[in-house]
Amino acid sequence: MFLRNGWYTALWSHELRDKPVAKTFLNEKVVLFRNAAGEVGALEDCCCHRAAPLSLGEIAGDYLACGYHGLKFDVDGKCVEIPGQVQVPSGARVRSYPVAEKWNVVWIWMGDAAKADPAKIPDMPWLSEPTWAATPGRLHVKSNYQFIIDNLLDFTHVAHVHKRTIAGDPREATEPMKAERLNDGIRVSRWLLDVKPPPLFAKAGNFQSNVDRWQFARWHSPSVVYLDVGCAKAGTGAPEGDRSHGISIWSTHLLTPETELSSHYMFCFSRDFSLEDADMSKLLYEGSRATFLEDVDFLEAVQRNRVDGSLDGLVHISADAAQLQARRMLGSMISAEQAP
Ligand code: FES
Ligand SMILES: [Fe+2]
């Protein structure tokens, strides 16, 4: 069901401060913590002494101290101290997961630690570089993560689901999309020329008339999707590469399965205009969250109808090409990983 050898997103960096954080990823209970030196550890959330959740403990300098009897663990899961006892048995350790911190995100590797290569984390400078203003958030969704990826690779739902936020023109429901298979994922794209601007973009970009609108989405296995979306005043050359009469927003979606039936959903709108404008940040944070909550209503309802998370027996339409390619690609990666 899940690809294990892949980088998943655990937390936004700012979510990990001076307290351990408990999360379930791929059905496994994990505790994340940042020690006094700033290093991040991700350990099985179960003490090797009497099985207390380590997330009930506290940060003690470079270590995480169990809240039950005070055993201390380093970021690699090794027990380094037992109160009232000189010797620490060599087997006193808990499982640790490889982690990496990049683009203001704490990434976790749930598979074979020897295969964890941080160079494979997708490049997303718009999440952390000072030339961008990012407005990150988080949702918890009672849906299998693949339904969420399906949704993000399908632009036609925008016209129906997002009438109040990012839908602008009825042609969004019908204009074809181009899906391409890449080495490590799928790209799907389209242009909508001379259309009504969507309400959220009209506000952010102060558009009074029709726009040329672009939507480029990229899925990276296992479950990162980002979109380069924007609008420019119609006929000002955006399709030829001149975006100076418009606004671009990078819309990032970082999904991690919690269980087969639920997912962690970290989202972020990043912009390269009005960087210091707090009202713009508020508009885009609240607008993006409201948009994705519109998706959540559908995703959770779909999940209730499709408990096994599959698309078996359902009818596909031409707009589904990208999501079907992504499902096939991920499916063969999972099969290859599980092959004896
Ligand atoms: S259960 Fe953790 S120290 Fe005893
Ligand atoms: Fe949506």
Provide a short characterization of the protein structure.
This protein has 340 residues and is an alpha+beta fold.
Write the layout of secondary structure elements.
Elements: E1 7-12, E2 21-25, E3 28-34, E4 40-44, E5 58-60, E6 63-65, E7 72-73, E8 79-81, E9 99-102, E10 105-109, E11 133-141, H1 145-152, H2 158-161, E12 178-182, E13 185-195, H3 199-205, E14 211-220, E15 224-233, E16 246-259, E17 262-271, H4 278-305, H5 321-338
Antiparallel strand pairs: 1-10, 2-3, 3-4, 5-6, 6-7, 7-8, 9-10, 11-17, 12-13, 13-14, 14-15, 15-16, 16-17
User: In DSSP terms, counting alpha (H) and pi (I) runs of 4 or more, how many helices?
Assistant: 5
In terms of DSSP E residues, the strand content is: 25-35%
Helix/strand/pairing class, anyone? Answer: alpha+beta
Q: What is the CATH topology classification name of the largest domain? A: Naphthalene 1,2-dioxygenase Alpha Subunit, Chain A, domain 1
CATH C-level class of the largest domain is Alpha Beta
Largest sheet: 7 strands, antiparallel
Shape: globular
- Unreliable runs: none
- Distinct small molecules bound, one entry per kind: FE2/S2 (inorganic) cluster, fe (ii) ion
Question: Number of DSSP strands?
Answer: 17
Mean pLDDT: 96
Order of neighbouring strands in the sheet with most strands: 11-17-16-15-14-13-12
Per CATH, the superfamily of the largest domain is Naphthalene 1,2-dioxygenase Alpha Subunit, Chain A, domain 1
Ends: how far apart?
16 Å
User: How does CATH name the architecture of the largest domain?
Assistant: Alpha-Beta Complex
